[in-house]
Write a structure and sequence with these properties.
alpha+beta, Chloramphenicol Acetyltransferase, 7-stranded mixed beta sheet, 4-stranded antiparallel beta sheet
């Protein structure tokens, strides 16, 4: 087995339990665990409203969540691991993927969008990137490359399609999936995010796929008001958003996942942290939010 593939480096030292997990649970879909949390976005909303008005920009909740998730994956690298060929691999890049509807209609086509996160990126640059890509997708009537490829596959006879995907499965097992098939496929992203709040829907459970290498899928619900108990024990009306994450439990334990959600929560509750570059060292308070150790 090779020590490096185009998109990742093989993790050489794996403890005994995790070494056998891919054999005990060879299917990613069978090894998934789902976690849900509710994030307080009251201060974030005020922060974005102020900046949007003062600077004439268009920060959105989805942009902030993407930034918080990206920063969490950067500082919690086990979230960027995947299993392929019964081996553990550390991705070389952090790639977020989304599905964008061209228009909010039942019959509207969907396009795939990807964001490769760089250490120097901030909330502002991520927001501009997403807004620009979404605008281009909705203005451009043509499909993206992966969409064209899917249409071609759909015309192939079923018996031949079965053979093709068996071959692709073996290529992936050995870390030799052609770049043309992996690039532009959400199944090869670090995190696939679905912004259900944009269609006024709550967060839902979303399964993982055995095809590809994607280990984390997240759905974001509609922002709403909720009664929250403060430190003083009193009830307060706060702006909140719920998010559900489905993860491959073989890449890390529940304790690691739970602490990662706490970091996302802290970043959303302290939006000034999102102004800093993804790769800039986290504040002591942010580190403390995940137990004092990353």
């Amino acid at each position: 087995m090779r020590k490096e593939r185009r998109d990742a480096v093989r993790i050489q030292k794996v403890d005994g339990l995790h070494t056998i997990l891919p054999y005990v649970m060879p299917s990613r879909a069978a090894a998934e665990v789902s976690m849900q949390d509710v994030f307080d976005i009251t201060d974030l909303n005020a922060y974005m409203a102020r900046r949007n008005e003062e600077e004439g920009i268009n920060l959105k909740l989805f942009h902030a969540i993407c930034t918080a998730v990206a920063k969490t994956v950067y500082w919690r690298p086990k979230l960027n691991i995947f299993i392929s060929g019964n081996r553990f691999w550390q991705r070389k890049d952090i790639v977020l993927a989304f599905v964008v509807k061209r228009t909010f209609e039942d019959t509207s086509e969907e396009s795939l969008m990807f964001l490769t996160v760089k250490p120097e990126m901030t909330l502002d640059s991520i927001s501009k990137k997403i807004l620009g890509e979404v605008h281009e997708l909705r203005e451009n009537s043509g499909k993206n490359d992966i969409g064209d490829m899917i249409e071609i596959f759909a015309k192939i006879p079923h018996w031949l399609l079965t053979i093709i995907f068996k071959i692709l499965g073996r290529l992936e097992f050995h870390g030799r999936m052609p770049k043309a098939f992996a690039d532009g496929d959400t199944n090869y992203a670090s995190v696939l995010l679905s912004n259900l709040g944009s269609i006024k829907c709550g967060s839902v459970y979303h399964h993982l796929n055995d095809y590809g290498t994607n280990s984390i899928v997240g759905t974001i619900g509609t922002a709403h008001k909720a009664l929250v108990y403060g430190d003083d024990g009193a009830e307060h009306v706060r702006d909140v958003v719920d998010m559900q994450m489905t993860l491959d439990e073989r890449i890390a334990d529940g304790f690691y996942f739970a602490r990662s959600l706490k970091l996302i929560s802290y970043l959303l509750e302290h939006p000034e942290e999102l102004e800093k570059p993804i790769g800039e060292e986290l504040s002591p308070e942010a580190v403390q939010a995940v137990g004092g150790k990353l």
